[in-house]
Amino acid sequence: MADRQVDVAVIGGGPGGCTFAILAAQAGLNVVVLERESFPRHMIGESLLPNNTPLFKRLGLFDAIESGGYQKKPGAVFTHEPTEYSRKIRFRDAYQCQAPYAYQVERASFDRMFIDRAREVGATVIQPAQVVDVLGDVNEVRGVCYRDGEGTHKINARFTVDASGRSICLAKKLSRIDRDPVLNQSCAYAYFDKFQFSPIAENGDIEILQTEDAWVWLIPLSQELVSVGAVWTKEHIKQQKSDLPSMYRDLVKRSTVLASRLQDANQVGEIRSVADYSYKIDPAWGKGWLCIGDAAVFVDPVFSSGVMLSTLSAERAFDLTVDQLKSGKVPTLDRLRRYQNWISRGLQRFKFYIYGYYTPGFQKVFYSDPPLRAFRRAVASNLAGNVFDPSLATRFWTSLFWFNVRRENRKLGYKSSFAGLS
Question: Mind listing the pLDDT tens digit for each residue in 250-279?
C-alpha cells in the first residue's frame, strides 16, 4: 500500500480520538483514525457528566445517545461507611446546569457509536491498526507507521493526535510520564446482576462509597447490570498478602454497605484489575503532535471525569488548531501551549476535589448540611464538570467551600501534600 498523506492522523478510536476526528472531518479536513482493537471492545469509564451534553449535540450524537437505552444519571450519592454519613449531589442544582442528568453507559456500544459517526462524516477509520513507530522525533512529528493485516504502512500527517489512552503511544517515545506520588493507586472491578440503590438515591445515581481502606464505585448500567469497582493505594496493597482479585472478594464480603447494595446479586464475569492509575505527560505537545484525554493525563476516577476530560480536551485542541490546519499549516506551538494551559486550569480545579476527598476536613464539610444552599450548588457545578470555564457564582462559592475545608484540616492538624488544602 502506498504511503498516505493526510491533514490529521488520530491514534485511538475511543470517544476522545473520535471527537477530534469527527470535528476535523466536519470541517473538511482529511483525517485518518488508527484503532488497534476491533469493536465492540470492553472498557471501563462508564459514568458520564452533564458537561458533555453540548459537545454531544455538536458532534451529532446527542439524539442517538438519548434514545440509545442508556441509564440516565441524575446525580451521585457519596457514602462514608465508617460514620454512615451520606450526601447526595443533584446535577439540576448546579449553577451551570448544562443538563439535569448525564448517562451511565456500556462502553462497548457507546464507543462504537463514536467510531461509526467518525466514518459517517468522512473520517477514514483503519482498525485493527497498531501504531509501531513515529515519523520524526521530539523536535517535529510528521506522522506515524502502523501495522495491520496486510503489513506495515506510513501515514504522513501535518498533525498527529495521540488519543491512545493509557497506552500513551507518543509520550513513550517523545516525552516524560510523571506518576502521581499521592494518587498512586490500583483498582479491581466486576459486574453484578442486581443492585439496591441507597435510600437517598434517585434511580440511576452512581454511588461512591468510602470504606476503611478503599473507595468503591457502584455504577448502575441497567436494572440487570451494575459495575462495582474498588480502588486502593499502593501502600495498602503492599501490606496485603493477597492479590487484587482476592482483596476485592474480601471487601465485598466485609462491607456492610456493599452487602446491602448487592443483596442476592450474582457476579457476572471475571474480576478485572488496573494498576498505576494517575499520571501526567510533560510535555503533552510539540511541533506536529498533541496528546489528549488519558494519553495526556489520568486522574483518580472518583468523580467520573474520564470521558468528559477526554472529549472536551479533544474539542478544545480542535478549536485552537482548526484555522491553521485548514490553511495548510502545522499548528503553532503557542496554540498548543494555550491548550495545555486550559487543560491545566481545569484539572487543577478537579484535583482539588480529588485530593480533598481524601482529607478529613473535606469529609467533615462535605457530609455536613451546608448553612447555605449556594455551597451545594457550587459543589454540584464542579462535579457536573464545569471546571474549565466556571461562572462567577461557581468560583465564589467554591472558594468559600475550600476555605472551610482548609480551616477544618488545620483544626484537625492535617497537612496535605496538595497546595491549598491545609
Answer: 999 999 999 999 999 999 999 999 876 678
Which pLDDT score, from 0 to 100, does residue 332 have?
Answer: 96
Check: CB of residue 285 under 8 Å from CB of residue 291: yes
Which pLDDT score, from 0 to 100, does residue 173 have? 87
Contacting residues for 67 by C-beta, under 8 A, at least 6 apart? none
Q: Are the CB atoms for 207 and 255 separated by under 8 Å?
A: no
Asked if domains 4-70+105-180+278-345 and 185-274 share a fold, the reply is no
The Cα 202–Cα 334 span in angstroms is: 45
- The CATH architecture assigned to 185-274 reads 2-Layer Sandwich (3.30)
pLDDT at 311: 96
Task: Please state the pTM of the whole predicted model.
Answer: 0.94
Please provide the CATH number assigned to the domain covering 4-70+105-180+278-345. Answer: 3.50.50.60
Residue by residue, what is the 3-state secondary structure of 393-408?
HHHHHHHHHHHHHHHH
Measure the CA–CA gap between 382 and 91, rounded to whole angstroms.
10
Strands (E), 67-117: 71-73, 75-80, 85-90, 102-104
Strands 4-11 and 31-34: parallel
C-alpha cell read off for 153: 504502512
d(CA 330, CA 362): 45
Q: Where are the domains of the chain?
A: 4-70+105-180+278-345, 185-274, 359-422
Distance, CA of 104 to CA of 209 (rounded, Å): 17
Cell of residue 231, nine digits: 480502588
Decide: 370 and 81 in contact? Cβ < 8 Å: no
